[in-house]
């Protein structure tokens, strides 16, 4: 059944499934998740953020995005390193680490929700505009 999939998107999803299976079979859980997180979450998220803030994702827009986002990345990495080196021998590190992840996930979720809400509203406005233009053409 899966071999005869005609839809290109389904083929791509099947490819990803096989790739994830291989990735998680032959790597540790933490490395598998790190690779997944960077390739299938972070990079598309960065592209969406660049498109949202600049309207398109060109190399020049990416170069302009990096210094702004880099400040946040650097602060996060420094704070995580400080937590690790301060509490690496204690069980408290795991609690602090996951609290830190939750603390950065919540604002990230709000920003991404705002981005996608804006995309949806823009699509609605464009469709309404197209219908209005079409109605004007049919009236005249």
Automatic annotation (TrEMBL):
Pfam families: BCD (PF15461)
Ranges annotated as spanning the membrane: 15-40, 52-75, 95-116
Membrane recorded as keyword: yes
Annotated GO MF terms: oxidoreductase activity, acting on single donors with incorporation of molecular oxygen, incorporation of two atoms of oxygen
Protein name, per record: Uncharacterized protein
UniProt entry keywords in alphabetical sequence: Membrane, Transmembrane, Transmembrane helix
């Amino acid at each position: 059944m899966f071999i005869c999939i005609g839809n290109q998107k389904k083929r791509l999803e099947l490819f990803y499934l096989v790739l994830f299976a291989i990735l998680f079979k032959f790597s540790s859980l933490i490395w598998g998740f790190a690779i997944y997180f960077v390739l299938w979450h972070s990079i598309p998220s960065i592209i969406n953020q660049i498109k949202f803030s600049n309207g398109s994702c060109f190399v020049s827009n990416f170069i302009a995005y990096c210094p702004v986002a880099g400040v946040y990345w650097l602060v996060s990495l420094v704070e995580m390193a400080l937590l690790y080196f301060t509490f690496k021998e204690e069980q408290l590190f795991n609690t602090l680490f996951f609290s830190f992840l939750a603390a950065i996930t919540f604002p990230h979720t709000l920003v991404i929700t705002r981005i996608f809400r804006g995309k949806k509203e823009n699509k609605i406005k464009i469709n309404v505009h197209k219908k209005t233009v079409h109605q004007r053409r049919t009236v005249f």
